[in-house]
Design goal:
2 domains, RCMT, 15% strand, 4-stranded antiparallel sheet, N-utilizing Substance Protein B Homolog, Chain A, globular, 401 residues, methyltransferase, alpha/beta, S-adenosyl-L-methionine, 8-stranded mixed sheet, 15 helices, MeTrfase_RsmB-F_NOP2_dom, RNA methyltransferase activity
Length: 401
């Protein structure tokens, strides 16, 4: 049963809390399972592992929900699964043992939260102290960041938000759905992580310039470009995502030309003064809100995305007027999808040059500027010193001579 199939809102919230906790604590739960099940997860055991992980999350990390209910509901759940029903004894024994060791399991080292290869890689790239912040950010999750049409003190106060940088604000806590927040129905803001809001601000063109937003859905960056006064063409290949993009712009009362096409092959009737390419990537920078990416991304996945990005970069360059600006970004922590891609583009695409980003362009995020003039953000950086971190993002600005 999916979360959407759960009728009661409180039950949906509980299901989401259990699943999210199990995903955030996945590495620690792996260690716990290795102690509880000497022979590992039984083969062809249906929902056994999923139910066991959720139940351990409740027993160890959400004890206020009740230990008895965790054990009872787990056993009842697998009884209804013909592939797992014969394992009720094993489930009961494993959870009883987990309950007796709950205090020790609660204190497992946070280093277990990240895959070992990712921890080594990111320690080398960002430093061990940053990786410590990564684990803290993983457990804490992501606060809600918004981009405001008009960041007036009155609007910020009505939301109960804290200003970040430019027109981004943060809600550390909220007690209602996004749609019920002040100003949503009136189209006064849109949801956008503070890191994701950086690339569109770096286009640096005059109002009225024609800008192409490649891979545009769900439309946060498109909205920023429209707000900046550009004439915007927003492109995405997925019809469902295009419909979502259009709906979001409609709510904001923003207008843009919408194109459904492949970003790698799109041939425009006229070249653009600016192109923003938020390329498909491994999305490892989004682990605060999507912890599963930590365990689902392999070196092969990153390499495959890198090849796709090069095709998109090549076509973005083809769509750009001489003298035009190309902003390239990915929500990835992997240099292969960021710095290495820019090096490849500068070496391969004749006439493309780097347009370094200055500290004064992203005041409040000075720690994210690299010596080369790139922006490299990660969950260990607090925007404008406001606690909560931000997504991992790489941004480079290029220009066609």
């Amino acid at each position: 049963m999916s979360e959407a199939e759960i009728a009661d809102g409180r039950d949906r919230a509980l299901a989401n809390k259990l699943a999210t906790t199990a995903l955030r604590r996945h590495g620690q739960i792996d260690f716990i399972l290795s102690e509880l099940l000497e022979r590992g997860i039984p083969k062809k055991s249906g929902t056994f592992e999923a139910v066991l992980r959720l139940s351990i999350a409740q027993l160890v990390y959400l004890p206020d929900l009740g230990a008895h209910s965790a054990v009872h509901l787990a056993v009842e759940a697998i009884k209804r699964d013909r592939k797992a029903g014969h394992l009720t004894g094993l489930m009961n024994a494993a959870l009883r043992r987990a309950q007796s060791h709950a205090a020790r399991y609660w204190s497992l080292p946070e280093s277990l939260l990240l895959p070992a290869d990712a921890s080594r890689r990111w320690s080398s790239t960002y430093g061990e102290s940053a990786v410590t912040r990564f684990t803290e950010a993983l457990i804490a999750g992501a606060p809600l960041d918004l981009t405001l049409k008009d960041p007036t003190p009155e609007r910020i106060e009505a939301l109960g938000a804290t200003p970040l940088i430019a027109d981004s604000v943060r809600l550390a806590e909220r007690d209602r759905p996004v749609e019920a927040l002040s100003g949503y129905a009136e189209g006064e803001w849109w949801v956008q992580d503070a890191a994701s809001a950086v690339p569109a601000r770096l286009m640096g063109l005059k109002p009225g310039a024609h800008v192409l937003d490649l891979c545009a859905a769900p439309g946060g960056k498109t909205a920023q470009l429209v707000k900046a006064g550009y004439r915007v063409t927003a492109l995405d290949a997925d019809p469902a995502r295009v419909r979502r993009l259009q709906a979001n712009l409609d709510r904001l009362d923003y207008k843009a030309e919408i194109v459904t096409a492949d970003a790698g092959t799109y041939s425009p009737p006229a070249l653009f003064e600016g192109v923003l390419l938020d390329a498909p990537c491994s999305a490892t920078g989004t682990f605060r809100r999507h912890p599963e990416v930590l365990w689902h991304r392999t070196a092969r996945d990153v390499a495959g995305r890198a090849n796709l990005q090069r095709g998109f970069l090549t076509n973005a360059f083809r769509c750009l007027k001489p003298g035009g600006t190309l902003v390239y970004c990915v929500c990835s922590l992997e240099p292969e999808e960021g710095e290495a891609q820019v090096a490849w583009a500068l070496d391969t695409l004749s006439g493309l040059e780097l347009a370094p980003i200055g500290v004064e362009e992203i005041l409040g995020l000075e720690a994210g500027i690299t010596p080369e003039g790139f922006v490299r953000l990660h969950p260990g950086i607090d925007p404008a010193g406001v606690a909560g971190g931000m997504d991992g993002f790489f941004v480079a600005r290029l220009r066609r001579r």
